[in-house]
Amino acid sequence: MYGTIAKMRIREGAEGAHLTFQRQYEQVKIPGHVATYLYRSDADPREFYLSVLFENRDAYEANARSPEQDARYRQLRQLLEAEPEWHDGEVVYQQVTVAARS
User: Fold this and answer.
1) What integer pLDDT is reported at residue 99 of this predicted model?
2) CATH number for position 16
3) What is the arithmetic mean of pLDDT over 53-68?
4) CA angle 63-20-79, nearest 5°?
5) Mean pLDDT across the stretch 22-49?
């Protein structure tokens, strides 16, 4: 698997819009997409960490190059104080104990 982790700071007052935006992804079928996780920092409730996983690097890069993803990113960017801090990489280990849905 391959993916990215992004550190983001949400604009003041945009927390609800950000969660709504993220939930819209549930309806989008992105080839090779495996999972998305969004974490809210305990230390700063406006700081979020986004983890997105794809089947492989090719699927990740195809999505990153797509005009549809660019449009989604531009929508997200409007909710952020600054550019996200991106960390791309290959998943070299995973442990899944129980599949949980929230």
Assistant:
1) 67
2) 3.30.70.100
3) 97
4) 75
5) 93
Is 101 domain-assigned? Answer: no
CA gap 29, 33 in Å, rounded: 8
pTM over 0.85: yes
Asked if residue 97 belongs to a domain, the reply is no
Classify residue 59: in a domain, yes or no: yes
**H or E stretch including 91?**
none
| Residue range(s) defining the domain that contains residue 36 | 2-90
For the chain, the domain total comes to 1
> Is a pLDDT exceeding 90 seen at residue 24?
no
Residue whose structure tokens are 């996983």: 53
Question: Which amino acid belongs to residue 33?
Answer: H
